[in-house]
C-alpha cells in the first residue's frame, strides 16, 4: 500500500506541475485617460479579481510620476524612460484575449480618434482576436473633451515566460561574450 500511494502521489504532482506550466493565466487591465485632468489611471488584476497594482500617472516638470498609493509615488525622469524601455520585456509573452474601448470626445478630436479606433480594431484582428471579444464605443460630446476608458484582457502561460526569459539570457550571454572578446583583444 505504501509504495503505490507514493507512486500515485508523485504522478499526481507531475500532472499538476504540467497543468500549471501550460494553463493560461489571465490578466485584466483597466485604464482610463482624461485629457482635461491630465491623468492616466490604471489597475491590473490577476484572474480578473486579484489586484496586482493600480494607481495613476501624472506629469511633473522633468518626467512622469507613477502614484501607486496615496503616500508613495515613483518618479521617472524623461531621460530614464528610454533606458527603462530597453530592459527585459515580458510583453511578447502576452496574448490579447479581449478588448473594450469607450471614448468620449468633442468634435475637435473625432477624426483622429475614429482613425485610432480603426487601427486598434485592425491590430486586434491581426493578432488573432475574434469579433465577439472586441467592443468599441465612440461618444461625441459638446466641448473640448477627451476621455478614453479601456479594459484589456490578456493571457500567458508560465511556459511562455520561461521561454522568453531563456531567450533574454541567451542574448545577454552573446553580448557579454562579445564584450569580453573585445576587452581581451
What does this structure look like?
The protein is of the alpha+beta class and 185 residues long. The chain contains four helices and eight strands; from the N terminus they run αβββββαβαββα. Strands 5-4-3-2-1-8-6-7 form an eight-stranded mixed β-sheet. Strand 1 and strand 2 (39-46) form a beta hairpin. The radius of gyration is 22 Å and the shape is extended. It starts with a helix and ends with a helix. The relative contact order is 0.16. The mean pLDDT is 87.
* Major sheet attributes: 8 strands, mixed
In angstroms, what separates the terminal alpha carbons?
65 Å
Mean pLDDT metric:
87
Structural class: alpha+beta
DSSP, total strands: 8
In percent, how helical is the residue content?
Answer: 25-40%
Sketch the topology as an H/E string, one letter per element.
HEEEEEHEHEEH
Low-pLDDT stretches are none
Provide a short characterization of the protein structure.
This protein has helices at residues 2-22, 78-85, 110-126, 158-184; strands at residues 25-34, 39-46, 50-60, 63-67, 73-77, 95-105, 134-140, 146-156. With 185 residues, it is an alpha+beta fold.
Task: Produce the secondary structure layout.
Layout: H1 2-22, E1 25-34, E2 39-46, E3 50-60, E4 63-67, E5 73-77, H2 78-85, E6 95-105, H3 110-126, E7 134-140, E8 146-156, H4 158-184
Parallel strand pairs: 6-7
Antiparallel strand pairs: 1-2, 1-8, 2-3, 3-4, 4-5, 6-8
Amino acid at each position: 500500500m505504501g509504495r503505490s500511494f507514493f507512486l500515485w502521489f508523485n504522478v499526481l504532482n507531475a500532472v499538476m506541475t504540467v497543468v500549471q506550466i501550460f494553463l493560461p493565466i489571465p490578466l485584466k487591465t483597466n485604464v482610463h485617460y482624461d485629457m482635461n485632468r491630465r491623468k492616466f489611471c490604471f489597475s491590473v488584476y490577476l484572474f480578473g479579481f486579484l489586484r496586482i497594482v493600480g494607481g495613476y500617472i501624472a506629469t511633473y516638470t522633468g518626467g512622469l510620476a507613477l502614484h501607486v498609493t496615496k503616500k508613495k509615488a515613483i518618479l521617472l525622469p524623461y531621460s530614464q524612460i528610454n533606458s527603462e524601455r530597453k530592459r527585459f520585456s515580458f510583453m511578447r509573452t502576452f496574448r490579447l484575449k479581449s478588448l473594450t474601448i469607450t471614448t468620449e470626445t468633442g468634435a475637435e478630436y473625432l477624426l483622429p480618434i475614429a482613425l485610432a479606433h480603426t487601427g486598434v480594431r485592425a491590430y486586434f484582428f491581426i493578432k488573432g482576436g475574434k469579433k465577439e471579444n472586441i467592443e468599441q464605443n465612440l461618444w461625441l460630446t459638446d466641448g473640448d473633451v477627451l476621455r478614453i476608458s479601456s479594459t484589456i484582457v490578456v493571457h500567458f502561460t508560465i511556459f511562455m515566460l520561461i521561454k522568453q526569459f531563456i531567450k533574454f539570457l541567451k542574448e545577454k550571454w552573446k553580448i557579454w561574450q562579445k564584450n569580453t572578446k573585445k576587452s581581451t583583444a
